[in-house]
């Protein structure tokens, strides 16, 4: 059964100022230390202070430490008044184990950005559903000490100021073929398809009136079909305003066409405006977008505007 209607208005956290503190946390799997330190250096070059949660580099199987320790790091970051934004070190697996234990009272008392994607999608669902809080779907990408320019500029923009941003679909993205004419607007909700299915029934926000964002990695055609069928049959896709499709990366090379056919079948059945080809997800040069913020999708101009 779909969740109650989204809280309105959706809360956008305060803009960051020079000298503000950003904390890295690991709600899911353990990151590579060098990668985290490289991203910290970029954030410091932007004028922010950076620290790292106590258990960020813990390791327990595929998890960054115990559930209690990962949860404590995340909740403490929301409670600490010195912390002005929270950045997940990586996705992986495990955020779903703690998503129902977020300290929502602390979140509401001091809203701040959570930056992450992939497995972190379920935490972003929990924040939007439980506290009406927007977050940033994406990550700071750093390679050989240098931030990817377009990604970094967009992340910096959303952290420090708010003004219209327009993203244009990339025609070289395979999902560009799924675009349907029409325009739609509403809060942007969604992200990693596997996490949306995991969240359904207990952490997934009500999607009525929203623009649903879909992206996936290592996906199989049957898994995509099963996931979308489940979301549809359970009523979670009722009342959608439109669909935004990011990067859908197949588990096996050469399977893009099969996955696109599966997506096309479900999209046609819904009959909504669709914008594909969005550089959002696990592919090349992905961009950061605000989860929960109002977005306008235009399938004819091929634009995505906040």
Automatic annotation (TrEMBL):
Domain LD-carboxypeptidase N-terminal: 22-138
Ranges of residues in domain LD-carboxypeptidase C-terminal: 185-297
Active site (record annotation): 118 (nucleophile), 215 (charge relay system), 282 (charge relay system)
InterPro entries, alphabetized: Carboxypeptidase_A_C_sf, Class_I_gatase-like, LdcA_N, Peptidase_S66_N, Peptidase_S66C, S66_fam
Domain of life according to the entry: Bacteria
Keywords recorded for this protein, A-Z: Carboxypeptidase, Hydrolase, Protease, Serine protease
GO molecular function (one): carboxypeptidase activity
Cell division as UniProt keyword: no
A biological process from GO: proteolysis
Protein name listed in UniProt: LD-carboxypeptidase
């Amino acid at each position: 059964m779909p969740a109650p209607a989204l809280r309105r208005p959706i809360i956008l956290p305060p803009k960051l100022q020079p000298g503000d503190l950003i904390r890295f946390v690991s709600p899911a799997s353990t990151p590579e230390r060098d990668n985290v330190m490289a991203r910290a250096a970029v954030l410091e070059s932007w004028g922010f202070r950076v620290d790292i949660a106590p258990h960020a580099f813990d390791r327990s199987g595929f998890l960054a430490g115990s559930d209690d320790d990962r949860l404590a790091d995340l909740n403490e970051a929301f409670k600490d008044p010195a912390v002005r934004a929270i950045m997940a070190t990586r996705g992986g697996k495990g955020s779903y184990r703690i998503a129902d234990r977020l300290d929502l009272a602390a979140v509401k008392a001091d809203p701040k950005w959570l930056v992450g994607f992939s497995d972190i999608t379920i935490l972003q669902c929990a924040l939007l559903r439980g506290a009406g809080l927007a977050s940033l779907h994406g990550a700071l990408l750093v390679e050989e000490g240098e931030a990817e320019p377009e990604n970094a500029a967009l992340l910096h923009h959303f952290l420090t100021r708010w003004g219209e941003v327009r993203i244009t679909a990339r025609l070289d993205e395979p999902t560009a073929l799924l675009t349907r004419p029409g325009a739609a607007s509403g809060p942007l909700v969604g992200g990693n398809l596997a996490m949306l299915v995991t969240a359904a029934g207990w952490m997934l926000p009500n999607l009525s009136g929203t623009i649903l964002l879909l992206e996936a990695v290592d996906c199989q055609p049957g898994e995509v079909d099963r996931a979308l069928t489940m979301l549809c049959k359970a009523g979670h896709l009722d009342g959608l305003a439109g669909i935004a499709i990011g990067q859908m990366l197949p588990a096996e090379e050469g399977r893009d066409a099969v996955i696109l056919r599966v997506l096309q079948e479900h999209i046609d059945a819904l009959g909504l405006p669709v914008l594909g080809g969005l550089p959002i997800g696990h592919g090349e040069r992905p961009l950061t977008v605000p989860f929960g913020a109002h977005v306008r999708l235009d399938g004819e101009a091929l634009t995505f505007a906040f």
